[in-house]
Amino acid sequence: MSALSQRPDDAAVGLTVPHESAALHVTGAALYTDDLVGRFRDVLHAHPVQAPHAHARISRLDPTPALHVPGVVRILTAADVPGLNDSGVLGDQPLFPAEVMHHGQAVCWVLGETLEAARRGAEAIAASGVDYDPLPSVITVREAMAAGSFQGADRHVQRGDVETALHDAAQVFTGETEFAGQEHFYLETHASLAVVDESGQVFVQSSTQHPSETQGIVAHVLGVPDHAVTVQCLRMGGGFGGKEMQPHGFAAVAALGATLTGRPVRVRLTRAQDVTMTGKRHGFHAAWRVGFDAEGHFTALEATLTSDGGWSLDLSEPVLVRALCHVDNAYFIPNVSVRGRIALTHKTSQTAFRGFGGPQGMLVIEDIIGRCAPQLGLEPHELRRRNFYTAGQTTPYGQEVRHPDRLVRAWDTIAESAELDTRRAEIATFNASHATAKRALAVTPVKFGISFNFTPLNQAGALVHVYKDGSVLINHGGTEMGQGLHTKMIQVAATALGVPLHRVRLAPTRTDKVPNTSATAASSGADLNGGAVKDACEQIRARLDAVDDGAGLAWEDLVAKAYLARVQLWAAGFYRTEGLGWDAATMHGHPFKYFAYGVAAAEVEVDGFTGAYRTRRVDIVHDVGDSLSPVVDVGQIEGAFVQGAGWLTLEDLRWDEGDGPDRGRVTTQAASTYKLPSLSEMPEVFNVTLLPDAHEDGAVYGSKAVGEPPLMLAFSVREALRQAAAAFGPPGVSIDLASPATPEAVYWAIELARSAVPATPVPYAAGPAPRDGSPAAGDVEPVSAPPWQVQT
Amino acid sequence: MAAVDEAGSPGATTHAAARSPAATVNGAAVSLRGVGPQTSALDWLRAQGLTAAKEGCAEGECGACAILVVRPVLDGVDGRPADQTRADRTAPPPSQWTAVNACLVPAASLVGQEVVTCEGLGSPDALHPVQRELALGGGSQCGYCTPGFVCSMAAEYYRPGSDGFDLEALSGNLCRCTGYRPIRDAALALGSPGADDVLAGRCQRPAPRRSSQRVDGPGGTYHRAAVLVEALELLAAKPGAMVVAGGTDWGVEVNLRGARREVLIGIDAVPELRTLDVGVDTVKVGAGLTLSEIEGALGDRVPLLAQLMPQFASRLIRNSATLGGNLATASPIGDAAPVLLALDATIVLASLHGERVVPLAEFFTGYRESVLRAGELIRSVLIPLPLAGVAGFHKITKRRFDDISSVAIATAITLSDGMVTRARIGLGGVAPTPVRALATEAALEGRPWDRDTVEAAAAVLRGEGSPLDDHRATAAYRTAMLGTSLLRLHADHPTDRQRPTVEMSP
């Protein structure tokens, strides 16, 4: 057992404690960025002028009409930028654009004494201060593919010889899979509040997952060194990846306004502004060919994944890399050739969203399994189980899969605890006796790689103070967005110092306390910052132990004695994840410290009249290592699952794809049109268990990351819906289910099943089916014979 | 619990000038002087430093801004039918805490009202029972939605006559983090208020009287009418005024569409609009009753309305929205219209010139247009009795609850000896206005209620209206749903098992 993972007796990690801010949350005392506005005098409010075109050149921009509006103080345009006019790090995201790249893009910002004044000023500019020359636009990923509209680097993961393997396969299937993105819909929209202090330094409070990058971008927009800008994040009202890259521009607008006017400037987006201006989860298109041997094992996968990147690169490249590294999910595929590319479309710049490409990659393989299983004559759960990684096998990008036995253990645990065999029999009975409603049960696994793919990001810092009275103040580079990171860090500090939890206080994340931090992302917050906090605490503990010299002094006495002995009672901690290696060019190496595993079983009931459905029961066994904080971890699993189910079944992000004047506009830009899961979407029975005996050697106190992996457990719901729709038709029929699987999508899947001609499944014992060469991709055949039909 | 009677809540201004318009917030008087008609209660509270209530959507969908107000409990409007109030039951308290979306309430309309926000329920050192259950049970993650959940839960905790936590109380609150399980468990773990609970005790006194009031501010004036004639006079005098009952439409217009009205006329307290009469041949529903009040008072006695209510927005919205408001907006997808069309309802319109009665089927004239004239208000909705024996309301949505319908189909079939003697079908979402499915009704009437008739009529129903493709559904799906609706109704009611509910007592 490593020193990092070893857990002392009486550890504060592993205790069941509520969120460190719970009492503040429930009383409304917890403050978010925009709650601070009333604490400053003379605050100016910012409002954007949003372009009404998907793609256009700005031929004239005149702020004068706004200046005639009472209460308008200043208009911010590109001419005001003293530094670099860019809200990103790749040089392709102008803060004030000359060319509109998506409907709703901000072309300039109005500052007013009140938000109402700023809004009216923006209206005045929109009405008579700005002219556009519309340009042709690309909206859908299919349009981009047809037009050759791509951006960034293509990527390719390859192992073995796909062509030979497909040639030799017992059965080969081909098909396409297309699925939508997802709006983050953190309840707190983007917010920033900037002030200039007495020394001219800019202090920006921002709802950001990545304070260091926000700091860097504010600095380059202002044309000042990083040390002249401090960014603080008290907490976020949800982030989910949507505040990793997206807050920077809003923080820069606030900071620019504050430096130009000398007054505090507040930027807070309305929901519609947030939806129409900020990036979302990438939708993808995938075209694939897959081969199976006579026993139903994968022999080869060839695929091309095209992500819908929106107007700029943003985080699209790393998202694509993670998608390519998760196409395998939990399955060993000996021969693989998966290419990835990024479409440039005139939409918001799609970005990080919990899972960061992992869900998109996995959706492809789970969709393939769900569609192929009926034609292989195998139950989907049997096909999945048969293809699990076994010890010693490696992923297509060359990383050994450690602990595949944990996946098997989780799978077997669920089968027993959720009584899957019994319930499958009950479901069969129910379906036989109900013509207008069908039930189904699906089980899906998750294997998710933990660490930033880009190795340098796997570092973190912390600052720990022990004061003379024995109280402890910790600060680290991670941000709190509800995921319970701060709770875990307090537990880590208490454990490492050997003090009770109540002795430790955590101060908000600030760039002047811990510099050069990575985003709180990739589920790595606790791994990285936990390592850093532990390091700082252990430095202090070692000095104190030397003072104690075996005397066993009480904490307060020991601290007092150490102070008098002139011993340093604070320390900066640092952590970097060891043992990583990744060649981005060849897409080969071992980018992940470890894999997180989980299994979910979901049962649904579908109404044959409408396609409406209920999730009757969900059972989950998930691997979080030795949990740092069980309430937090269970909460992450439940929340991620429901959010994933939202993406896959309910949340229906739409853009105007027509040729009318609103082309490119988000048509679902409000809570009334973009529906999140509500209480009624929660599984009626919801059992979540942490996998026992799951110590992770080499991670802080034996724990594992938890933020993202459970989101992908929601594939169980989508696959159950597919199976329930199939139950309306004859057996052996492959069912294509659109994503998201809204009631309408499920209804059309039911209609597909109902109209299907009964197929004769190929009995597997019969051996390889005859072949006459490789199948052609992209076949379009009638509904009764879908394009992924067995090629013989 | 933090004493709600204490002055000096965070940031609250406590000067209660004698004649200055004011509301009581967490026990302290807070001035409404200078509050304009476009200022929401949410923005006003946050400007007072009471930042627990959050803006998540500004249209009443997320509930992050929920607050509590004291509302009167009407006779028979406490969750049990008026005619079943038994002598052995203690009378309900005269008032109750009602959760509403602060983003949809004109701040000025709070004049004279009592409000409690999340801050007023408890503090970190003295948690309210609702707050304690949520905090200890892992019910908050990012915490942004939490104060709204706390207020919705507290309203249910204090609901008069509660016999256990009704989870529908949380139907208007969204959480993006938890997946809801710990919130549900916290709600179900709640007990009942103690005997010394200050907020429960408050309900033993009547709600504040909603008197005639006027609040002036930048951008215009809010008038609250105390009686119908006052409302009508104001309306006649201010033709451009917006009538506000629950505010659920006002809030969306102001917050999302930038509407700015100089004059608001508040009719939420007009007694003539807040009556409910169950007669021998008519159920008469006041247009100013909230949907929650109607739901509580009518119970199951009009089955179509009972089916409608749980699917009608959320509890938070139903606590404010009124039947009159839903009809007056004349939306093609308002959920009340299809049901009331199937019920053959008529509506009573009132103006200073008197009243007129209009069949609902003749009320809607175009997209968001109706026969409502300047100076007219919807006074009440009349539902004729007896009710049809076979009835169903089918709302087609993406989300099971609290979603806007892509299609809504309400059907009421009267059977006699197995024959359809009368059919009424109201449709939403298939035309610029809510419409009756007249051809389908004709295809059903005079025929036996059997599979053949239903399949033939379903084919006709598929052709009614002119459904469109939009972000909610394709036209093809809408058409398909029209067709399956009758099949579904017949599957649920293959025979006339449900006897017509004619024996309703006044």
Automatic annotation (TrEMBL), chain A:
Region (Disordered): 765-792
Gene3D superfamilies in the record: Aldehyde oxidase/xanthine dehydrogenase, a/b hammerhead, Aldehyde oxidase/xanthine dehydrogenase, molybdopterin binding domain
Matching InterPro entries: Ald_Oxase/Xan_DH_a/b, Ald_Oxase/Xan_DH_a/b_sf, Ald_Oxase/xanthine_DH-like, AldOxase/xan_DH_MoCoBD1, AldOxase/xan_DH_MoCoBD2, AldOxase/xan_DH_Mopterin-bd_sf, Xanthine_DH_Mopterin-bd_su
Ranges of residues in domain Aldehyde oxidase/xanthine dehydrogenase a/b hammerhead: 27-136
Class in the EC hierarchy, top level: oxidoreductase
EC numbers on record: 1.17.1.4
Top-rank taxon: Bacteria
Pfam families recorded: Ald_Xan_dh_C, MoCoBD_1, MoCoBD_2
Protein keywords: Oxidoreductase
Name this protein carries in UniProt: Xanthine dehydrogenase molybdopterin binding subunit
Gene source species: Intrasporangium calvum
From TrEMBL, chain B:
Key words, A-Z: FAD, Flavoprotein, Iron, Metal-binding, Oxidoreductase
Classification via Pfam families: CO_deh_flav_C, FAD_binding_5, Fer2, Fer2_2
Domain FAD-binding PCMH-type: 215-388
Disordered: annotated segments: 1-20
Protein name, per record: FAD binding domain-containing protein
SMART domains in alphabetical order: CO_deh_flav_C (SM01092)
Oxidoreductase listed as a keyword: yes
InterPro entries: 2Fe-2S-bd, 2Fe-2S-bd_dom_sf, 2Fe-2S_ferredoxin-like_sf, 2Fe-2S_ferredoxin-type, 2Fe2S_fd_BS, Beta-grasp_dom_sf, CO_DH_flav_C, CO_DH_flav_C_dom_sf
Record carries keyword Metal-binding: yes
